[in-house]
Amino acid sequence: MDDPLARLSSRPRPRPRRTRLSRSAEFERAYRQGRSHGNRHFVVYAFPRGNDVAEPDVRLGLSVSRKVGGAVDRNRVKRLLREAFAAEAGSMPAGHDVVIVARPAARELAEREGLAGVRGALRELLERAGT
Description:
The chain has one domain (16-129): Ribosomal Protein S5, domain 2, CATH 3.30.230.10.
């Protein structure tokens, strides 16, 4: 039958908590001082923290409002965004805070194209942001 351990090993590993934005002040700084780029599905705010920061990792913050859909839809969009960001984070310079705001069209993209669509839309914005 199906080996449960095989399923667990194929799951993507979660990013450590220190690579996530959690405080509202961190989000506000990215919104106010960061550069923003948007498309139909997402808005990306990128803020370089500078060299004096003890954490060199790229940190991610997500904002998915109820306009995107119900809890199931929002959680799916967030999961896909985390996976897409993890795949793209290796090409980003260290020491940045990135906040991704999902627009209502993100749900349609997630349903229609899945991870590949979300990753493509996110890659386009991260390239434009220069991160």
